[in-house]
Protein 1
Amino acid sequence: MNNTEYNFAEIEKKWQAYWAEHETFKTDVWDFSKPKFYALDMFPYPSGVGLHAGHPEGYTATDIVSRMKRMQGYNVLHPMGYDSFGLPAEQYAISTGHHPEGFTQKNIETFSKQLKELGFDYDWSKMVATSDPAYYKWTQWIFKQLFLDGYAQYIDMPVNWCEELGTVLSNDEVIDGKSERGGYPVVRKNMKQWVINQPAFAEKLLEGLKEIDWPESTKEMQRHWIGKSEGVEVKFQIVGGGEFSIFTTCIETIYGITFMVLAPDGQLVQDLMPRIKNQAEVKAYIDETKKKNDMDRTELNKGKSGCRLEGVTCINPANGKEAELFIGDFVLASYGTGAVMAVPSHDQRDFEYAVAHDIPMIQVIDGADVSQKAFEKGEYLGKGCKLINSEEFTGLTVEEAKEAITAKLEKMGVAKRTVNYHFREWIFARQRYWGEPVPVVHTDDGKIYPLPDDELPLVLPELEDYKGQGGKAPLENATEWKKYDRNGVKGVRETSTMPGSAGSSWYFLRYVDPHNDKEFANYELLKHWLPVDLYIGGPEHAVGHLMYSRIWNRYLYDKGLSPVKEPFKKLVHQGMILGENGIKMGKRFPKYVVNPSDIVKKYGADTLRLYEMFMGPLEASKPWSAAGVEGAFRFLKRSFRMVMDQPVVDRAPNADELRLLHATIKKVTNDLETLNINTAISQLMIFVNAFAGEGKELPREAAETFVLLLSPIAPHVCEELWEHLGHDHTLAYEPWPKYDEKHLAVDEVEILVQVLGKPKSRIMVAADATEDAMREAALADEKVKAAIEGKTVRKVICVKGRLVNIVAN
RNA sequence: GCCGGAGUGGCGAAACGGCAGACGCAACGGACUUAAAAUCCGUCGACAGCGAUGUCAUUAGGGGUUCGAAUCCCCUCUCCGGCACCA
């Protein structure tokens, strides 16, 4: 035995060069003759630090599937690109005065080089970068359509303003009143804003969730984010003139109203101000609320703060009774109507408020004691509880009352059924430089003029200073660029740019046709390639990117520009790779941070790929193990030597060899399809344990099949072995091995015999033995006889080919 | 608090309601070697035995369904992720 050295560095270099030279993975998107498979990774932000250990995990998984699909005869599209607008490049520009473009370009090159070293089968000719004007031309174009169709609007609204960053942030960029990046304080402030009307898509987005194969947790998060609630909007008359509406999902409790609460920062309380007797107190509370907005509100609201509006009452339309008005900061001006009816007996929040402000309560639903805490809808719904103290509705069940009360109020003309969403406008502009300029002009006569298509892309101007002055957008510094005077249109360009999520909201459409300069993508191609068959990415995008992408795509679908309602058919989140200490890799424990490039240098890309896939289930978080990497490396070395050094013989495999071979094909094929890659690798290890050994011969069929099965996971070494086996072409398009059940069949099987569920013996029976034969054989077994000695056999359960369970006592 | 997911050897983990712990790591014993590394073979829940084997325990804890439960149902605890006054 000559013990050929596994020189992974040379092998990997050789095959990466081969793939590049032969354009092995270039996809002819116009080839519709084969079934398509579109595998997609969430494209990275090209940061200066390069890849981390988590990147290869998801990327390897899609790579494995796309390589297998290609071998199974699919035309595979597996592209990669960069979400290249973002804050680090902007900060670099501010501190150095250089254009972020160069910095970004350099990072893209570093990333691409690292990704190529991992041997992914990306078609690099399809690469996109969101900061490339040829790309963002179409981001701007889609935005323009959204504007023309009324979905993108320029409106006055309260925003999350971060003074330190000098920009507006979306809700998901604010955590506990601080900015996600940097942790700077964020305040609420009214500003003219570009927004996208996402509530207009709420129903369609909810509907779409039903048809896609996504993790349940992610779908649930999206449902929550949309936050649909069905209820009734009811008009209340104010004593002495005026009216206001409230929204409730519990109309059945309307007879339990003892007070009403308005949002302190709403318009209504301002309108009522002249009639309020304790104005000083009310104004003080309102001021306090405004200050509170930038603090951790939950901390401050242990007790239910608020203030009575003395001298103002309203009439409950259901029974004509008067109710007092309050303001309280638990009522949000931006949700519902900015006013609520308060039923302390049946809402814990109202209960606490009533206790704090000494307000009476009326129980209207029977079935619990409400002296200590409220009897809430979660507890009474669907339990057949009945109404009390509710005039003609007393005695009805809650469900009946919901309908009857709504009907009565509708008849009176004071109520209508409504749906409310937690989902608000998506704020779609940032006071930053490194983003897509919003392609509109504010004309001198006060109108908004979207740029004509031939002026797109509207390219970012070079600046002397990339920092905005006094919280203004950096593009305000571009005094010449800003001025607009063409074709009789005079005005000033919009100076805010789009948020980071703009470019990533449609990149999956562009990959199909990335060089098209006539349209964002050819519809025929989209129709063939969409939806994405497999999308893998981190769970941190569960509501952000994955929601925005669905919105943009759905808009384009409604417009006839995207062929599918939902862009991502199957979504999988890879789990986080933790440090060896079991804690998230990061600055806190630098010695536990793993750099994939180091692993590639020491063990090769194939080992890194194999190890990351063997660590455990793809979706699980799992700690890194340096020893585990050694194990993966050992397996590849063993596999390598098995094929290189053992005699490969042309005899047909014997029955035992065939059985293992076909069992391996079956398990690997099924497991890769379902992304149980760790168990597919286990099976390949079992195969090697059986076939590898000094002096053992390797039937050619077994050798070739093994190499093909391992190739999606460890492509470089397998190409090398394939070549060694006498092939002069890449194995990337070799037909994927097929298994035949007939080779898996056995004549005799070992079955277990249990007595009262306890294993007692194992016996051999014919594979197709009938239940009677099994029972007979089991009862004839010596050990079984001993176990049931002196007992009466009550029942015998037989499971064909598996076991016999004797119930005896 | 609410929603989602998870809890199995020393560790990462396997297991259509049917022999728990496949596969890998670590550990231990052995072969090869002057020696080490690499490699190969073996052991690896506990107890007894040289051994085949036997006995016992066992899938966070408690209850239930079932001939049979890691797996299904109910309750409790712990951990992770998300949301958090949404009317």
Note: Residues 294-301 of chain A have pLDDT under 50 and may be disordered.
Protein 2
Amino acid sequence: MPLASPPPPWPNHWLMKSEPAEVSIDHLAAAPGQTLPWTGVRNYQARNFMRDAMRPGDGVLFYHSSCAEPGIAGLAEIAGGLQPDTTQFDSASPYFDAKSTPAQPRWLQLDVRLVRKTRLLALREMRQAPELASMQVLQRGNRLSITPVTPAEWQAVLALLQQAPLA
DNA sequence: GCCAACGTTGGC
DNA sequence: GCCAACGTTGGC
């Protein structure tokens, strides 16, 4: 594994996708301390964000994917807890990775804490907002489960969340 | 369920 | 190192 690069200017903002059938914003709200370990990331680029760039206190847009109403469902924050993803060693887990060992772990997890549940900012609505057009999650072909969010995009999402949903 | 787009794997 | 085949993601 290459050495970690120095941390970027703080704070950062991120969008993290989760399938609500697996982990929804309500699951996060109901968790002890409203905090859950973010496990199951199996993409190197997303892992590297966790390893090199995400820091406690970073803002998170909690996004529901692969569901009837995809979109941003709440705000969260990174709560530390960076460590090897425990599910990679669990042969009963769908996230088991036979090529991973505790001595040489491939995958990482960190803790995500709820800040607040929001109205659903639907993907459809995000696509209609010109100020969000630059968001990585909206780019064609994007599949990354963790993407960086610029301060301007973050502010624009907060502003949209305060408005009534589009009809 | 469909399928476009992407990342990973593995033969060569 | 190339690249075709394959598996996965995720909106629709």
Note: The two ends of chain A are 49 Å apart (CA to CA).
